[in-house]
Amino acid sequence: MPLLTRLGRTALDALRGTGALGLVVGRTVLALPKLERRELGRALVQFGYGSLPLALATAALAGIIVVLQSGIYVQRFGARAFLGWAAGYGVLWEFGPLLLGLIMSARLGARNAAELALMQVGGQIEGLRGIGLDPFAILVAPRVVAMEVSMLALSGVTFAVAILFESVAALLALGLPVRVFFGTFSQLLGPLDLLGGVVKTGIFGLAIALLSTTVGLSARGGAHAVGQAAANAVVRSCAAIFVLDFALTSLLAGWMG
């Protein structure tokens, strides 16, 4: 295939995808006042509560890894007392939101896209339109709200667990007393550092919800389209998270001074 033709098709696909995303955003916002509350409750249990064990396990392992990795450098430069600040900053500001976003893009994004794609290719969504019901009020808006609320709730819990395991790892692996760990943590980290991590997580959650919904509703074909939608949701969500992380880190770091 000629290069120009390939570039043209890529640009056309990107334009079509941007338009579909904009349509999903607009129709979801319009459907928010009349969203189906029972579907919202089911989605909160499925997306939020169901993700808790995975999120906690990831947070514990991330906390231990951050301490073991950063411990090498703080010991080399004789700065063990600052390990609490360095490890806490890493979890609150960068590793916590990023890891949570990537893990949830695989769990929530893939599941949401696959379920919507299955209903799309199976004709259920068209059937809802046929009897005068709005699929965005019944299916889409509750899922988007549930994923956003779940990500924000999980961020607070996972950050706390990660920091707790960091302090334990610092004590067991490096012999750093817990009071010293939390001493520099509380002295050098402020509420804005926590706020930055929560803001990042919330925006990542919104990106996962909207992208996976767009991919799911755009599915056409048979069973192959369902699997393809799940895979595309993960790839696009992960790519969006890295781009957003770069932009938000630059923006928030400059704003918070």
UniProtKB/TrEMBL annotation:
Keyword annotations: Membrane, Transmembrane, Transmembrane helix
> What InterPro entries does its record include?
Permease_MalE
Enumerate the transmembrane spans.
44-70, 82-103, 152-174, 194-217, 229-256
Q: Name one GO cellular component term.
A: ATP-binding cassette (ABC) transporter complex
Q: Which GO terms describe its molecular function?
A: phospholipid transporter activity
What Pfam families does this protein map onto?
MlaE (PF02405)
Q: What is this protein called?
A: ABC transporter permease
Q: Which organism is it from?
A: Myxococcus xanthus
